[in-house]
Amino acid sequence: MAIATINPATGETVRTFDELGEAELQEKIALAHERWRTYRTTGFQERAAYMHAAADLFEKEADVVARLMTTEMGKTLAAARNEALKCAHGMRYYAEHAAEFLADEPLADPSQVGAERALGRYQPLGPVLAVMPWNFPMWQVMRFAAPALMAGNVGLLKHASNVPQCALYLEDVFRRAGFPEGCFQTLLISSKRVESILRDPRVVAATLTGSEPAGRSVAAICGDEVKHTVLELGGSDPFIVMPSADLDHAAATAVDARVQNNGQSCIAAKRFIVHTGIFDAFTEKFVARMRELKVGDPFEPSTDVGPVATEQGRADIEELVDDAVSAGATVLCGGQRPDGPGWFYPPTVITGITRDMRIYLEEVFGPVASLYRAADIDEALEIANATSFGLGSNAWTNDEAEQERFVTDLEAGQVFINGKTVSYPELPFGGTKRSGYGRELAAHGIREFCNLKTIWIGSGAASS
Nearest to residue 70, comparing CAs of 5, 17, 3? Predict the structure, then answer.
């Protein structure tokens, strides 16, 4: 894929970028390695000052940043502005809590290991390569960059090829905030050059958010090189509704959970599993709300759903929907691309899905909801867990026993009861099964790219 800004609302190529030459790439890796040697010795207070300054810039320039995101990947302007402000919040969170999260962990009674002092100490690893996707072009990067930089690591960003201006802005904002040159660098390169960077001994670890094939590739290479990785590989999240739920609230949230970010979110609800006793009532409310959504120019304030980010992405959605329909599924709304320019696809609800349809197991990365009927909680859980993914999950019930059952038995990295899945700096984020491994955010996220060093200190005197 060419490195270019292509407006998904029009299909117009706005700007193209040259890929880094090999000599330029090597210079950037060398700079990252050399910068880490000095940056790792800075204190939390100094790093926090840089991070707060970067947050100030994000807040001051939120409107500019939002227009950049909307132009490159098509999310609504309001959603883009919220993303910019969320980045600032995440920066401040780690600026304020990094010292606490990475404080020494002393053994309460060091004498039990024959020491005068014994403790664990978190220390940065070095240059980390981040391979990031286009769907949240700022926030996905920030939930790696803020904790990594506050821990004393330095970052190298290989961003998606369709959001180059977002990628360059991120490097620029850290530079303008005062971070020493080389602490965070954007690499405008193609995916085929990632392997050489991962195998470079100066790059010590990697994090990737993206497709399962991309994750397998990075994990295999880093496994061969014995380098630490964190992977977030998407999901096909269930949204379960039981009879005790508030149906109006559940239906309204279901729509938001499905079409957030134009339906292109790893933690968007994608499979809606509804108890048979309320199936018809929920379906009526859900479909009516999906039909009311306005699809159009993401820069217009009245638009609810903008375009899919790439032409291939829309084609992938159409393939899954057409496959299901040809095998007997029923489309309750949407299901046909509109005429005209841009890569738009309407909010769509499909039911009558069976195991032989691709949509039963595969993730739909767009505003398409799969609707299932469940006889009871056991069948709801069976349908919910019948996927290789395990990122987020949602369950709607006011029955405490059912809530505990969902918390215990849903196979996911996150369970949200009576709400939609959201990533918060304050909570750990990540998946299980083929949704990846490792955690971002909260204390766990900043510790992922640290060496937890065991320190044992004796008296130095011979016993008498």
Answer: 5
